[in-house]
Amino acid sequence: MRVLGRIGYGLALGLIGCGLNLAALEVLPGVHLLLGPLVVLIAAVLFGPVTGGVAGAVAGLSTLRLWHHPWGALNLALEGLFVGALRRRLTPLVADALYWLMSPLYFFLTYYLVEGIPAEGVLVAGVKQAVNGLLAVLVLQVLLLIPRVRRSLRPLLPPPLAEVSIGRTFSSALTLGAVVPLLVLGGAEGRERYDSQLRQVEEENLHAARVVANEVESSIGHVRHGVGQLARTLSQGLTAGGQLPGQHFLEGELDALVTYSPEVHQAYVGNPEGLAMAYSPRHDLSGRPLAGSDYSDRAYVRLVQQARGPIVSDVLSGRSHSPGPLVVAVAPIRQDERYAGYVLAAMDLPRLRQHAHAQVQNSDRRIRVTDARGSVVFDSAITGAGREPLRSITGTPLARALEDVTSGGTGTYSTEEEGSPVLRVGQLHHFGMVTVPSLGWRVLVEQPGTRLQREVERAYFSLLGTMVLAIGAAVLLALVFTRTIVAPVQAVSDAAARQAAGERMARASEAAQDAPHELSQLAETFDRMTGQLSRQMEAIERTSREKDAFLSIASHELKTPLTALKAHVQLLRRKLGGEHGERLDNVSRQVDRVTRLVNQLLDASQLGLEQLPLQRTRLDLSEVVRRVAEELVAASPLHTLAFTARPLLGDFDELRLEQVVHNLVSNAIKYNPTGGVIEVELHEVADCEAELRVSDRGIGLRVEDEEQLFGRFERGDRRELTGISGIGVGLYVSREIVRRHGGRISLRSREGGGAVATVRLPLAPPEQRSAAPAS
User: Fold this and answer.
1) Which of 324, 397, 611, 629 would bridge with 386, disulfide CB 3.0–4.6 Å?
2) Residue 370 bridge partners (DSSP)
3) Are 747 and 693 in contact (CB under 8 A)?
């Protein structure tokens, strides 16, 4: 197949593999079984490295979407190229296993150095891809053991798969039969363990969120009650003109509020314009007095004017004397409908954070409380005294995940949405959310997926360990079964080979005594069959010997009257002339023809009786060939001779080689009835051999005739042979003569029509050639 054709097959199969990769099967969370490698390996094994590499590159395009990097696609292309390059030397499973043994260097250079994936993630990725490839090649090897598949793909099967042993069949089938159920059951068990761990994480998150939500609501309620109580007290102490009590009185009440409310870290009383009239504590950290501070720009100053009771603000930024985010409770001071000011208490967020820290102590959980706008009230991950800037979760992956979660619900989000799928489970954050109804705040407790990632990895490697044990057990069982089954079958095969070599007493039943009943019965049936065949062969050989003896006797008896007849014809030819002479010439030719047939029958019978000796002499083979060919072609007016030769000296039986040349040239003339050129070539080839080639443009040969025509009394069964005389022993005798000279003879059809007979003969007898190096 040409390179363009291989590339075309690779593109077509690669597109199929790309589609199959999109339908990846999730064995465990984050662990997918790709089906595309099966198609890539089919391309590599059946069509070679070019097709396998192209199919792998195309099929790997879908992994760009799955894995967000090109190294998986390149790895799949290299796998197809490697397995395709070794397909004629190794079985697909061995070649793919060898590739994955060499792959750690590739993963180190690409995943670790280029992508920066941690070593643990690189290990998991490498193992997952190796399992994908090895499982695919195992499925492929089992598919190629199915007889119907083998018949359909036989021209494409590489040598290691052309002949399949019983041992490989058992080991492949048992291994696949052990791996697939384990993969299904192990994956189901691993997923159940993962789901159990996930439920536990979600329950822990929700429990911590409820505890923190209760604490927040209790603390806020206590502060709100405190400012409300103080506002009512000050409302009763207003003067007739609606003026607030003096600063000293106000500071005393504020001190009591801060002292007896641990959730409050500072408080003040403001007038309707938003100026602080009294403060507790009195001074900021730098010693400046806080009374007189202007808070008119605060939103809560405007909101509290219309409020009828205490309100709680969203999180806001503090002033220089109180940096960091703040949450305040504000209560209006009213006399009837007259608004006289307000009481404000700032809540102690660090104290709430400390309480949250107590819920996540010695764990990787994180607690965040957000207000209704998404601003972070406090975050357990922040350490210090609450001097962090104001933060918000608006627009973050967490905020988007919260859109589908109600109070008491759970969800997940990832901070690295384009991160590597190898670490995707570990990059997920699992959270539980509980709202504080009175405030509209949300309490979020989350845990990173590292714990679940470790659980998935443990489940996966546990599954792989179980699969390795199952494969080992399957291989051992295959070896046991193979011995049990192959031993008696091999015994039958060996007995058949010995029978073919002439050992008539070879039997197989003894070796199959302990085999399963069917195989033992097979060996016994074989022995009965060989016994019967042996008896039949003895009868055939006896008949053949009798036939050869008959032919030998008949030939000898026929030669005497034919010799006498030939002599009388020659005497009459000398005495008669004219028309009678021509008739006697015709009789003489017919006598010669019958004599040749009798000689051929005699030779065939002598060969059957192993009684055809050779009389070697030193001669020029080219002269023998020239003489016989010219005589035969000269007697045929429709044919011409094209003779090419050079002198070749050797030790041959001249009469027998004349007989070989006569048979080949006469066949070329006989089976080319319309006439034409008979080409006879003789030259020396390597290893001191003479090559004789006789070619014609006759009716030609069928492929099945090229060997069959060398049988005794074989002429073929073609319609074109009707009317062409012969008894079918010429080629049989010629082959035996050539074989006894240490040579070989062959027939083949000729391009454009006709046939070519080729004879190769050593120029020296075998004993002289073997003795030459020693001398």
Assistant:
1) 324
2) 376, 442
3) no
Task: Among 564, 588, 610, give the residue marking a domain's end.
Answer: 610
Q: In CATH, what number is assigned to the domain containing residue 594?
A: 1.10.287.130
Supply angle C-alpha 146, 149, 151, rounded to 5: 110
> What pLDDT, on a 0 to 100 scale, did the predictor assign at position 256?
92
- Does 489 fall in a domain? no
pLDDT at 99: 92
Residues 601 and 625 in one domain: no
The reported pLDDT for the residue numbered 771 is: 47
Give per-residue pLDDT as tens, 598-611: 666 666 555 554 55
Q: Give the burial string for 200-239 (b: 16+ CB within 10 Å, else e).
A: ebbebbbebbebbbebbbebbbbbbebbbebbeebbeebe
Q: What is the predicted pLDDT for the residue at 681?
A: 93
Counts for the chain of helices (H) and strands (E), in that order: 24, 21
- Verify that 623 and 606 share a domain, yes or no: no
Q: For position 228, what pLDDT does the model report?
A: 92
CATH of the domain at 746: 3.30.565.10
Q: What is the chain's length?
A: 775
How many structural domains compose the chain?
4
CATH assignment of the domain containing 389 = 3.30.450.20
Taking the C-alpha atoms of residue 652 and residue 617, their distance in angstroms, rounded to an integer, is: 6
Ranges of residues in the chain whose predicted pLDDT is under 50? 386, 609, 771-775
Boundaries of domain holding 11:
3-164
> What is the C-alpha to C-alpha distance for residues 277 and 248, in angstroms, rounded to an integer?
10
Helix (H, G, I), strand (E, B) or coil at 680: strand
Q: For the segment 448-497, what is each residue's pLDDT rounded down to a tens digit?
A: 877 777 777 777 677 777 777 877 777 777 677 666 667 777 777 777 77
